[in-house]
Design brief:
By secondary structure, this protein is mostly helical. About 65% of the residues lie in helices and about 5% in strands. Helix 2 runs antiparallel to helix 9 (about 270-295) and helix 11 runs antiparallel to helix 14 (about 465-490). The protein is flat, with a radius of gyration of 26 Å.
């Protein structure tokens, strides 16, 4: 075992040298029987190579055949080449990374691609159950309505997808193991060691990556194709076969979660690799669809999901590729600035700053984040599954309110992910502490429809409704845990000064909150046969109770925000505005259930209230923090 060495180089920007950890020369981390990142990465590379080979073999032998022997058209050549090239490229890039000792990048690359591959795997399960509705135009083009059967190629293709997912698991495991070793998240500027990638690359690149992640999520729920061909039938994603709908949703959610996790990673190399992998995965979904739509032939063209998804995937890929070099450049610049200063401003020791968390609050933030993500996933999945079960002779009623549950679920996921990372937890906590009410309000509309439908003979609660009910329970738990996190957070900061109420923020925020509350009490639209939920119809249904619960929460939030710290109050008011926007969006998304629907009296106060809440949030952000 070598003797300990000391790093006294000035380029680390530290005040004094610190000894490196003692470790064996050939065992990077820990015990000899505990696999190192290198061995785990090697397993991931092997699995990725298997996935690439499986993709090639599946295309060569074909994935479907006609039951009556009629011909089946071949897939779009350009799209087929891209769908094969991407998993091969990931495998080769990971192998090169392993060979050149870029362990963190290569492992994260596999993890990011494998996360998106989960959704693609679910999508292609449709090849076994209902191939003609899979619309995998890079694999085959149906020429008639003849029944299609899966061949061995479908099973090979699914096996390849499974290998990509397992490679991602191995990559994630390697990243986790690497994070336990010396040098993880290294920076030439010591103040940036252990800092999240978002803080090291700057706000512009962080916002771009997050925006492309959100765009990828939205694109996953837009159709990849437009078709006037009677054989190639393209429906809305939410109305597609269950594996297509759920798989598409998982692709979008996975891309968003990988982007958020990348920004929170302590290693720019991991952030870069994960984002590049997720970007390639999204391109394997939407980019392949774009090429197929443009080249598959007459009466079929690329849809909005293909265009938006290709832009999103390319954006995530390019931002990911830029993360590591940008972080390195900014680290060098920060070091140069630190060396030029004779003295740097240092905050008071022993008191947590306004943007920090400590172990006392971290566990509550993480618990609230896990519960919020679980609730959001349950809402999204439940909105895609059958809400009602009916007898064979009864048509299943369409419940448009599930669209709002899906939107609210995505927003809740987006707000909950930062709670898992200490650098962002304290800023995101007020958003989740309020928005869970918005998610419950959206779910209440679906539950009201279920209650009414169950009065009909032959109609019963479906698995989707049960998932949404579980999501409501999880959302309530999220709200309670967020309150505990806020209490623990206040214990970690200096509260010796009396909390003063900002009159301007209070007046502005309360005015906006009351307007939104009025909008929640009035109907969003009216029709000749039905009217949206309103307090004037007695007795109140679940939907009205949900809206009133949200109205009370928004008014209380406006009062609390005026006494809260500036940034917390701003986020709380912004959450109230977002909750109002989600409710307002139910007008265009659900008004089709009413005949001759017209704008209701709630739209005007809601719109004005949302704008005023936004102004109040800006005013709160500009006031001096206490």
């Amino acid at each position: 075992m070598p003797t300990p060495t000391f790093d006294d180089s000035s380029d680390r920007g530290s005040e004094r040298a610190e000894p490196e950890r003692i470790r064996p020369r050939d065992a990077e981390f820990g015990r000899a029987d505990d696999p190192s990142p290198t061995s785990r990465l090697a397993l991931g590379v092997v699995l990725a190579l298997i996935a690439g080979i499986a993709a090639v073999v599946a295309h060569l032998i074909g994935v479907v055949r006609s039951a009556d022997g009629s011909p089946v058209g071949s897939g779009a050549a350009a799209a087929a080449i891209l769908s094969v090239a991407l998993p091969v490229l990931v495998a080769v890039a990971a192998a090169v990374g392993a060979a050149t000792r870029r362990i963190e990048f290569a492992a994260a690359l596999l993890a990011g691609f494998g996360a998106v591959a989960i959704g693609v795997t679910l999508l292609d399960v449709t090849l076994l159950s209902d191939p003609i509705d899979a619309n995998r135009l890079e694999l085959f083009r149906p020429l008639s309505a003849a029944v299609l059967d899966a061949t061995a190629g479908s099973y090979v293709l699914l096996a390849g997808h499974a290998a990509s997912v397992l490679a991602g698991v191995a990559g994630w495991s390697a990243v986790h193991r690497a994070g336990l070793g010396d040098g993880y998240g290294h920076s030439v500027y010591s103040e940036n060691v252990g800092r999240a990638a978002a803080g090291r690359v700057g706000p512009l690149l962080s916002v771009l990556l997050a925006a492309f992640g959100v765009l990828a999520t939205g694109a996953a729920f837009a159709s990849l194709y437009r078709s006037s061909d009677p054989v190639v039938i393209v429906t809305a994603v939410v109305e597609s076969p269950v594996f297509v709908a759920v798989g598409s949703g998982v692709v979008g959610i996975a891309a968003l979660l990988v982007a958020a996790s990348a920004l929170a990673s302590l290693s720019p190399s991991v952030a870069s690799g994960a984002s590049v992998g997720a970007g390639l995965g999204v391109l394997g979904f939407a980019g392949v669809g774009l090429l197929a739509g443009l080249s598959t032939g007459a009466r079929v063209s690329a849809g909005p999901g293909a265009y938006l998804g290709t832009v999103a995937g390319s954006g995530v890929l390019l931002c990911g590729a830029a993360l590591a070099p940008v972080a390195a450049a900014r680290d060098r610049r920060d070091l140069e600035r630190a060396q030029e200063r004779e003295k740097g401003a240092r905050g008071a020791r022993g008191v947590a700053g306004p943007g920090t968390t400590t172990p006392g609050s971290n566990k509550w933030h993480a618990a609230a984040g896990i519960a919020g993500i679980a609730s959001g996933v349950l809402f999204v999945v439940g909105s895609l599954l059958p809400i009602l079960e009916t007898d064979s002779e009864i048509a299943v009623p369409q419940i448009l309110a599930t669209r709002m549950v899906m939107v609210a679920g995505f927003v809740l996921i987006l707000g909950s992910v930062p709670l898992l990372f200490s650098e962002f937890a304290s800023a995101a906590r007020p958003f989740v502490a309020l928005f869970w009410l918005g998610a419950v309000s959206a779910a209440a509309s679906v539950l009201q429809s279920v209650v009414l439908a169950e009065d009909v003979d032959g109609v019963s609660t479906g698995v989707g409704a049960l998932a949404i009910i579980a999501g409501v329970v999880s959302a309530v738990v999220t709200g309670v845990l967020a309150l505990f996190a806020g209490s623990a957070e206040r214990d970690d900061v200096d509260t010796s000064a009396d909390a003063a109420t900002d009159g301007v923020v209070l007046g502005t925020g309360l005015f906006g909150a009351v307007l939104v509350a009025v909008g929640l009490a009035l109907p969003l639209y009216r029709g000749s046969d039905v009217t949206a939920a309103t307090v004037s119809e007695l007795p109140w249904g679940w939907d009205t109770w949900g809206q009133m619960l949200l109205a009370v929460g928004i008014v209380v939030a406006a009062v609390v925000a005026a006494r809260a710290r500036a940034t917390r109050g701003s986020v709380l008011l912004a959450a109230a505005a977002v909750a109002g926007i989600v409710h307002l969006a139910s007008w265009p998304l659900t008004s089709a259930r009413a005949i001759d629907a017209q704008m209701g009296p709630a739209v005007l106060p809601l719109t004005i209230g949302i704008v005023v809440l936004g102004v109040a949030a800006a005013l709160s952000a500009r006031r001096p923090d206490r």
